[in-house]
């Protein structure tokens, strides 16, 4: 099974959806959006770039125009179909033309089969998409990965539990699409990857019954992987040679689902560990409802191998702790989010593997989050798949596809308000400290302040129109200083 076969199947499924639903009335809507930003720094302010599903640029001046059609219909016998095509033309971004979304969702009751490239917020732990700094494994920071995804997107009560237990989850396989960008981006002597497959799965449980107790507890796990594909090294003449040819048969798909050691056709590191690049997170949340108030605390513990998946080396020290308050309806503040994140410990600096068995012990530390010796980095089109406070390879000026600073501690605050039905605003303020990596530390601790101040207007007198204007202000000695503005204008409406 190669990538062309997968993409052909995705497009066939997408264009077959209208035929399935031709017996029913249909709803077709459109959207048109234009956005541009300017700034005076080496890079654009971080929040002009981050958590925009990759439709953004780290460059100080960039923009795009996008347009799309959304087909949506509820059918008989609990069936529901949704399909969307979303195209964008961009200036000073990683590509001048982007198929941002092209997907078909077929749902029956609480089950959904999603096929294609779709902007998917973080899952399975729900965070405030407007105010959170983002997920640690995968979320809205990078361009969507085309995939086939079977899921229970919302909590479903498990029968026989008296509404006290509910579950949701998913299983997905897909393919990364950025190998042409990788080949152009890397400099001679550096490595890149092509034809890499994607896998993720999750299970989340919710304990609680709001009809009897205004308290809910959630616990679950998310696991993701890169597998198959080739690793190449760029030559001085611009050509590339294959260094590693990873297996891509059905056995590799099974080993992505149940992590297992690689065979003789994989690199030595995969033979003694697991085949592919695996990472994930444990997720916890506690929500309390008090009249019109909502209080929510959550923890996402990140792990990049089995040593941090369990308490093998003591208590967990890396992850993101968050707290969210939703206020009763008022004119000024609707929600507040605070998050504290650490990726500094990574099980410690020491890595020792006694594969010969001479000493009888092994220390699996220096986890090197988001980096991988075969696939370079957990990224897509230069943007990190996880939290944007760890800037992705797109920021590297030496043509290396790695995270140069994955040992980070950060504080983040997000505040939003809805003064009226026409006006809304949000403010994001982040502060991060960077230490580099264990193998390549920075020359000194570096600090970065990033902020966004944004106002949106959707006038009632101009139905379907909306505009958002924002100011970004960054200060620090990691990404540098930058001040800029961003303007987005959109129009939505029904065709029939």
Description:
- The protein has a single domain (3-494), classed as Beta Barrel (Porin), CATH 2.40.160.
- 9% of the residues lie in helices and 48% in strands.
- The protein has six helices and 27 strands.
Q: Nutshell version of this structure?
A:
The chain is mainly beta and 496 residues long. It has helices at residues 3-20, 46-49, 179-185, 250-257, 268-272, 306-309; strands at residues 27-39, 62-74, 79-91, 97-108, 111-117, 147-157, 165-175, 191-194, 197-207, 215-227, 230-234, 240-245, 277-290, 293-303, 319-326, 335-342, 351-352, 363-364, 371-372, 376-377, 379-380, 383-384, 408-417, 423-436, 441-457, 465-476, 482-494.
Beta-strand share of residues: over 45%
Q: Quick one: how many beta strands?
A: 27
Helix content: under 10%
Q: What Rg, in angstroms, do the CA atoms define?
A: 23 Å
- Indicate the low-confidence ranges by residue numbers: 6-23
Shape: globular
Structural class: mainly beta
Q: What is the overall pLDDT average?
A: 92
From the N-terminal CA to the C-terminal CA, the straight-line distance is: 39 Å
Identify the CATH architecture.
Answer: Beta Barrel
Highest-level CATH class = Mainly Beta
Number of separate domains: 1
